[in-house]
Here is the input.
Amino acid sequence: MAQYDVVIIGGGPGGYNGAIRAGQLGLKTAIVEGRGKLGGTCLNVGCMPSKALLHASEMFEAASGGEFAKLGIEVKPKLNLSQMMAQKAESVEALTKGVEFLMKKNKVDYIKGWGRIDGPGKVVVKAEDGTETVLETKNIVIATGSEPTPLPGVTVDNQRIVDSTGALSLPEAPKSLIVVGAGVIGLELGSVWKRLGAEVTVVEFLDRILPGTDTEVANAFQKILGKQGFKFKLASKVTGAAAGDKQVKLTLEPVAGGDAETLQADYVLVAIGRRPFTQGLGLETVGIVPDKRGVIANDHYKTTAPGVWVIGDVTSGPMLAHKAEDEAVACMELIAGKAGHVNYDIIPGVIYTKPEVATVGKTEEDLKAAGVAYKVGKFPFLANSRAKINHETDGFVKVLADAKTDRILGAHAVGPNVGDMIAEICVAMEFGGSSEDVARTCHPHPTRAEAFRQAAMGVEGWTMQA
Ligand SMILES: Cc1cc2nc3c(=O)[nH]c(=O)nc-3n(C[C@H](O)[C@H](O)[C@H](O)COP(=O)(O)OP(=O)(O)OC[C@H]3O[C@@H](n4cnc5c(N)ncnc54)[C@H](O)[C@@H]3O)c2cc1C
Here is the structure.
């Protein structure tokens, strides 16, 4: 029987990054993955394929929607959806193979099959052919991730009514698409199909898009999406969906009460969130009881069962790949007797639309609710020379800092490439930096990053270029 220091169940960003770190720390490690490929939701049906389609559709729209022509490039693009899907699949395949290579490099055993805990220190792995392997281990790490949350009254068939996985592989560019849920995944995938020609209507239960995001940024973003042609039906509750051969009829009613309405579209994407995945995991054999939402609680990644740890989407906190990755590192360091730690105040969130949305730290609403006195510095991309020259002037950056100490408490932005640039604020915050630290740091010119500097200057009222 194989003996390990750590057996990780789940090969997503939590699992595979954990395996790499465990290998680096000299722990004898195995990673168990049931889907036949490493990389989890993120590489196979999440972050990476969505970004592949966002990039390709952005290029298509730039070529067909007038942006190229404005720059003096005249082309007549034609959509080749199967090639767009093929390049996505090729990139995903290369990434999953890369992760497999990293397992070998770090001397991690990759065991294919579905794992289940079978009492303390024991994991049984069932391979595709039905054979079972028993692994004995000092530590079990649960990294089984999440799955789409179902919507009562609406059956996802992944034909006409799709979840995010189905929406990443539609067989045709729809003429019309209804997205249920105005969160990150719905708006990203809605953008993909919008750019490829679909009329997109977003139906949301709440009276705003992107709940939890800084309200000013979310409202500005909604306006920008509106200009792009997105239609929104907010404060609307979906009550049912009937899929025909070519179209879906979706019924909804106002949350506040009122007349029901029927919308019709070629496809409906249900993107109302994700829930932890623990099916068949044998949690009962070690006495772990997830909460009502299926979340396995943790205390510094320890579950209630000795020797069983939990990281990533299946435990509390934002369902993000980089959060899973950071927890993985901290968890392995704790297992190895080191001081693993994650700073949950500095976990950025990005929406990879055009323009992008990026946020980190506290929102204005958070600070008001906590009674924290703060100052705001803002800068519009309209006044940023690089954005202006590139015709990408939608959006702004906002930096929030403590009114007394000037320590940065959060930053929120909508605009070109803000997803990459928010990392500068993350680093500043991690060092306990002030708005003045960012404002007095020399930034290269001309870059969009200067917008962050100018916003930071604005905290003390000396924004120079607007
Ligand atoms: C469309 C979409 C786009 C996204 N875009 C982004 C993004 O841009 N940025 C971002 O940060 N996040 C994004 N996410 C979220 C991100 O994918 C998740 O937060 C991340 O994958 C979580 O990592 P994880 O390791 O916890 O779980 P997962 O990636 O879900 O991996 C868990 C793995 O465990 C396996 N597994 C489960 N049970 C067992 C078992 N019993 N035995 C063996 N294997 C098992 C599963 O097959 C799966 O491969 C996106 C998600 C979706 C759906």
About this structure: Residues 9-15, 32-35, 40-42, 46-47, 50, 114-115, 143-146, 164, 185, 277, 280-281, 312-313, 319-322, 324, 352 surround flavin-adenine dinucleotide (CB under 6 Å). The chain has a mean pLDDT of 97.
